[in-house]
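Task card 7
Instruction: Convert sequence to structure tokens.
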Amino acid sequence: MESNQLTTGRFSTFSLYGFITLLLSYLTVLVTISLFQIGDTTLAGFTIAICVAHIGLYWLNGRAEKNIRWWIFYYLSQTLLIIAIAFITRGKYEINISLFESAIICIIGEALGWWGNTRKAFSIGGFYVLLSIVLIIIFNERENIFPSLSGLLINGGWIILIMILFNQQMYEREKAVELAESLESANAKLAAYNAKIESLTLQNERQRMARELHDTLAQGVAGLVLQLEAVKAHLSADRKERASSIVEQALLRARATLSESRAAIDDLRSTSGNLSESINEKVNRFTQATGIPCDLEISIHENEFSNEITNHALSILGESLTNIARHAQATQVKIKFIVQNQTLELEVRDNGIGFNPSQNTSGHYGLLGMHERTRLTGGVLAVESNQNGTCIQFIVGRP
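Output:
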């Protein structure tokens, strides 16, 4: 990329212009002494004025505001001064001082310093090389042309080559610094992303554990409460055999709840490998605990759903049955669990007293858990309820 401004990392204004000042001043003194020796004091004074103006333009260029008008003025002025220097040093054959060649090399080196190894710098350098060849041919005798050109090209070539290599090294260094800064910025962003991901992961894990514990502990304890209330009612009616049977069922339910809770805590919650068996188990436990008959329809063909999705569907079924037992006051339940055509459909319908689905569900973690599970599976959950009963429908397609 071309630059209109010197940078201290690649190019130092003070050091370059200081070197140019020392070199050209020294050569100007030698030229002036030679002119005084041959008695041309007027030309000696003119030489000093030209070289002072030439060196002064370098320093002025380091501080001037850069624009196209300035560059036109600068290079036009320097070109005229270099032509004048060529006239002075080459027009007098008694003088064999390399002030002209040094001025050419300095102006090319400055261009490389300003714009680096770019087309603009090489174009300016090429112009001054052609200018120097033309001036050498004009102001030199034929036998002196080749030695002068050879000296200019050899001495100037080495210096310009060193400048080009220096620019390339500085350019690579700047690229390395920019790359290091980019890597540091990328690492900082990556660290921020990791922290955000860790926070989201922790939040999702808390929500998952809340759902799992609700589906095990809360549902299990709710079932035990219902069974104990049934035992109390049977004992009050002196139906000891029925009460004893329910106690046995409650013990089995308590052991199952404990087992499921431990599995949830260890993230090893186990379900039956057979989906139909798991559904029947949940429905039978509900019927035994509540005495509410269930009309169950199961149709599973080529189940290609992952265990995660089927587990979410079973949990929604379990939560629906728990809500019916606790709140619905239903006398009949109809359940459909159908898997076919890469679609899983669950429908739980009761004839209870219903509720208002639009009410704030804050604190009702069962319904909240259903919505969260639906979101995780990418499915659809529909809840319809009125005074004639409630229907919960969960549908998810295979991704």
